[in-house]
């Protein structure tokens, strides 16, 4: 699936899953930084602003990687595979993600082909799962994210990722998402629906197909027809259930969105009020999953 470039440096161009995430509200918070620094102790206001900006970006990058490492197919495989199938489990879960950051934007990317040459949905699934968990945590913490996920061509270079998949993921975030949500491209949706053709190894192909059939969905159709990460759905609820106070995270997320919608409406910002109303329309039918009432 991957093909070498024409250059002598052996850079490989291939299909990747790319997640482009923007942390919203950072520009206003950066305005709280002082114009200049003197030799005295930094003010409490500056320390607070630093935590809300650079601290938030570093924290989100770390949380995403933690979610990525925790999620995936481990539990499904632990229930299905015997200790003697460790090599099979390793091959099914083989996955690595890289990231790059500029300002308040973080990009996560991974090849869809694992190190054994199989076309694997493991990285794609983990990226979607981690995006959902971070989406929920961001809303609960008052620093929401907006993003896009694409599956397309690109290459990994020293400075990060380069290729059309990055451009398409950015376009989803900047022009389609519009408010806190993570939107999938048509190619990402098509890849998520892949049900065969994973491996040339017949035995591994059957394992990949069985694992794929048992993996629950973490995406859904939004009211405008776009496919999004279902961050309030049953899948993310199950993943987050191992964390302390996870139900409170769902409640805090819903409270923030409700509060922001009311604020925008009171300020006469009809565009943002309408967008947050759409976000509430997505969240309200899922409140019962989190033991919440409308």
Describe the structure.
- By secondary structure, this protein is an alpha+beta fold.
- The protein has a domain at 13-32 and 45-228: Alpha-Beta Plaits (2-Layer Sandwich), CATH 3.30.70.
- The chain is 48% helix and 17% strand.
- The chain contains 12 helices and 9 strands.
- Strands 1, 2, 3, 4, 5, 6 and 7 form a 7-stranded mixed beta sheet that branches.
- Strand 8 (219-221) and strand 9 form a beta hairpin.
- Helix 2 (44-52) runs parallel beside helix 3, helix 3 (54-70) crosses helix 6 and helix 6 (122-140) crosses helix 11 (246-267).
- The longest helix is centred in the C-terminal third of the chain and has 22 residues, at 246-267.
- The radius of gyration is 20 Å and the shape is globular.
- The termini are far apart.
- 35% of the residues are buried.
- The mean pLDDT is 84.
Strand content: 15-25%
Whole-angstrom Rg: 20 Å
Number of helices: 12
The dominant shape is: globular
* Average predicted confidence as pLDDT: 84
Please identify the oligomeric state: single chain
CATH class category of one domain = Alpha Beta
Low-confidence stretches: none
What fraction, in percent, of the residue positions are helical?
Answer: 40-55%
Assign the structural class, choosing from mainly alpha, mainly beta, alpha/beta, alpha+beta, or little secondary structure.
alpha+beta
So, CATH architecture of one domain? 2-Layer Sandwich
H and E string: EEHHHHHEEHEEHEHHEEHHH
Here the CATH topology of one domain equals: Alpha-Beta Plaits
Largest sheet: 7 strands, mixed
How many distinct beta strands?
A: 9
CATH superfamily of one domain: Nucleotide cyclase, GGDEF domain
């Amino acid at each position: 699936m991957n093909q070498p470039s024409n250059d002598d440096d052996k850079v490989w161009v291939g299909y990747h899953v790319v997640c482009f995430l923007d942390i919203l509200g950072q520009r206003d918070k950066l305005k709280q930084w002082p114009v200049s620094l003197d030799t005295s102790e930094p003010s409490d206001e500056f320390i607070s602003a630093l935590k809300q900006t650079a601290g938030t970006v570093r924290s989100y990058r770390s949380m995403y990687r933690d979610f990525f490492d925790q999620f995936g197919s481990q539990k499904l495989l632990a229930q299905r595979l015997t200790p003697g199938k460790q090599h099979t489990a390793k091959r099914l879960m083989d996955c690595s993600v890289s990231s790059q950051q500029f300002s308040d934007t973080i990009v996560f990317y991974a090849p869809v082909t694992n190190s054994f040459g199989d076309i694997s949905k493991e990285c794609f699934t983990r990226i979607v799962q981690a995006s959902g968990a971070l989406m929920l945590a961001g809303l609960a913490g008052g620093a929401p994210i907006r993003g896009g996920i694409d599956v397309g061509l690109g290459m990994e270079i020293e400075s990060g990722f380069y290729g059309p998949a990055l451009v398409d993921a950015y376009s989803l975030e900047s022009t389609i998402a519009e408010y806190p949500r993570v939107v999938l491209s048509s190619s990402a949706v098509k890849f998520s629906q892949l049900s065969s053709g994973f491996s040339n190894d017949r035995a591994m192909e059957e394992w990949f197909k069985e694992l794929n059939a048992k993996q629950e969905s973490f995406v859904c159709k939004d009211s405008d027809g776009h496919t999004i990460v279902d961050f309030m759905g049953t899948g993310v609820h199950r993943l987050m259930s191992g964390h302390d106070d996870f139900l409170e995270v769902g409640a805090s997320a819903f409270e923030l969105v409700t509060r922001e919608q009311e604020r925008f409406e009171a300020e006469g910002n009809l565009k943002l009020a309408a967008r947050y109303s759409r976000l509430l329309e997505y969240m309200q039918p899922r409140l019962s999953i989190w033991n919440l009432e409308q």
